[in-house]
Specification:
Layout (H helix, E strand, L loop, with lengths): L2 E5 L3 H13 L4 E5 L11 E4 L2 E4 L5 E2 L3 H9 L4 E2 L7 E4 L2 E4 L4 E2 L2 E2 L11 H8 L13 H9 L1 H16 L8 H4 L1 H8 L4 H14 L6 E4 L6 H11 L3 E3 L3 E8 L2 E7 L13 E6 L1 E4 L3 H7 L5 H8 L3 E12 L11 E3 L8 E5 L1 H4 L1 H6 L3 E8 L12 H16 L7 E12 L5 H11 L6 E3 L9 H18 L1
Parallel strand pairs: 1-2, 1-16, 2-12, 7-18, 16-22
Antiparallel strand pairs: 3-4, 5-11, 6-11, 7-8, 9-10, 13-14, 14-15, 17-20, 17-21, 18-19, 19-20
Helix pairs in contact: 1-9, 1-16, 2-16, 4-5, 10-11, 11-15
Bound molecules: flavin-adenine dinucleotide.
Length: 467
């Protein structure tokens, strides 16, 4: 029986452990998580005494991976209300135009109310962008094709929501491959968006997003229980501090309170031998672990930067809920100078939450974009004040919250900079000499949870095939 060590107990590591234990039960699977908590960017917090999501809160339901996983562990699947999200632009709330592909409209007339007539005209006059096969910032691509307004008021806030990054710095090839490929082939971006909208409307009866009752923050514990039940050994408080190639396998140096070999005894350091290793850690710790076994991969990994952010979750009395009804929240174009970048009206969005806590309405705002971490230097009280002030500017004078909690995410989201696809290819090439090593997680082929699960499965399959 060979031992496969998985480093990192976020959704990627947990999904890989579950996949290996259920699809390839002949292996011993050991998952090592450095902190005392499983889940990484999935976490729950308590606000006004109730458990709500403190990190990721929904999965894309148009991809199969997350839904398959939730179904396999019998998690109680829920879907959000189908209220439209809004944009807070030029001092007013406007419903998100329908049929855009990450902000690129399929029909420029859908932008009335959001862009001026001149700006809409510029979108209509779409220009071809000759890329000669090279990567480009998604914002630069759309700006050259359709003008800057659609970037500033649509693409930027949408990308800000997903990556906490800047449209002009994020790779078109990695973040919006459909638009990049269209430009490379000399096809229209607007028509590409129209085709995507058509495909979407053929599936309009299917929900776009999903989560689980109790919040996505409760998924890691469920998944860990299921994985343990399937034979996985999970050790928290186990920091993998060194990885050394040893014949065809690996030696892992463990520190931290969970380093004792399952005895429960805190030990200063210990060693684990594994036949294969799956690194499901963010880019920086992965780079540290590979610094001697695959130094060129470490160099590539160090170039992947991360955005930090904070979420402030408010609980308001249900009697003050009117401003939050009929929409799931709003995104904020940074060009207008607001400090918050988005708000989710969690109780309006998730019926299970209103049923569970009928007398309160939970609303969260997010702050912080890549390279703009200054706002995060404020203490929690000031972040709460800033969040509430911006929220009031949007929805009007809401009354005092009953409670507010700040959850900070240092190094929350990897930035897929221009050239990211080549960077990842070079990292993978630099680990090719080690067939019993695999990399997975948000740093590589997609930051969303379904993409992380897909990368976990792919990495697990690679290892099993090579063992
Ligand atoms: C605030 C926020 C909201 C988000 N919302 C959504 C959303 O609604 N929907 C969506 O699809 N995506 C969302 N995302 C993105 C998504 O949640 C993440 O990309 C994804 O969860 C990353 O999972 P991961 O397992 O790859 O990495 P992580 O969650 O970062 O997990 C990595 C784990 O490795 C551990 N680790 C690190 N170093 C070591 C070491 N040396 N030894 C052992 N363990 C180590 C860490 O402690 C951590 O637990 C959000 C992200 C953030 C930050």
């Amino acid at each position: 029986m060979s031992t496969i060590a998985i480093v990192g107990g976020g959704i990627t590591g947990l999904a890989a452990a579950w996949h290996l234990a259920t699809r390839h039960p002949g292996h011993e699977v050991v998952l090592l998580e450095s902190t005392s908590r499983l889940g990484g960017k999935l976490d729950s917090i308590r606000v006004a005494g109730h458990v709500v999501d403190g990190g990721a809160e929904s999965v894309l339901a148009r991809r199969p991976e997350a839904l398959e996983l939730l179904s396999e562990i019998d998690a109680p699947l829920v879907h959000p209300e189908r209220f439209p999200a809004s944009l807070w632009s030029r001092g007013q709330l406007t419903p998100m135009p329908a049929g855009t592909l990450m902000g690129v409209p399929s029909d420029p007339s859908s932008l009335h109310g959001l862009l001026t007539e001149d700006e809409i005209e510029r979108v209509r006059e779409e220009r071809a962008v000759d890329l000669h096969g090279t990567d480009i910032g998604i914002g630069d691509l759309v700006e050259r094709a359709c003008g800057s307004a659609v970037v500033d008021r649509l693409v930027e806030p949408l990308l800000g929501g997903v990556y906490a990054g800047h449209a002009r710095a994020l790779s078109a090839r990695a973040c919006m491959p459909a638009l990049w490929e269209a430009a490379v082939d000399g096809r229209s971006l607007l028509q590409t968006a129209a085709r995507a909208a058509e495909a979407g409307s053929a599936r309009r009866d299917e929900p776009v997003f999903a989560a689980i009752a109790g919040g996505l923050g409760t998924l890691p514990a469920r998944l860990a229980d299921a994985a343990r039940g399937a034979g996985v050994t999970i050790r928290t408080g186990a920091v993998v501090s060194e990885l050394t190639a040893e014949g065809t396998g690996w030696r892992l140096r463990l520190t931290g309170p969970g380093s004792g070999a399952g005895t429960g005894e805190p030990m200063p350091a210990s060693t684990l031998h594994a036949d294969a290793v799956l690194l499901a850690t963010p880019a920086a710790p992965t780079a540290r672990l590979l610094s001697s076994a695959a130094p060129d991969a470490a160099v590539g990994l160090r170039t992947i930067e991360y955005a930090s952010m904070a979420l402030v979750t408010f609980a308001f009395r249900a009697s003050d809920s009117a401003p939050f009804e009929g929409t799931t929240g709003f995104l904020v174009p940074p060009v207008d100078g607001a400090q918050i970048k988005a708000s989710t009206f969690s109780s309006s969005k998730w019926p299970w939450l209103t049923q569970a806590v009928p007398d309160l309405r939970f609303v969260r705002v997010s702050l912080g974009r890549h390279g703009e971490e200054r706002v995060l230097h404020h203490d929690d009280a000031e972040l709460t004040r800033i969040g509430l002030t911006d929220l009031r500017r949007v929805v009007g004078p809401v009354l005092e919250p009953v409670d507010a909690q700040v959850r900070r995410w240092g190094g929350g989201l990897p930035q897929y900079a221009v050239g990211h696809v080549d960077t990842v290819a070079s990292i993978r090439a630099a680990t090719a000499a080690h067939p019993t090593l695999a990399l997975a997680g948000a740093a590589y082929d997609g930051v969303g949870i379904p993409a992380c699960i897909a990368s976990a499965r792919r990495a697990a399959e690679e290892l099993v095939t090579r063992l």
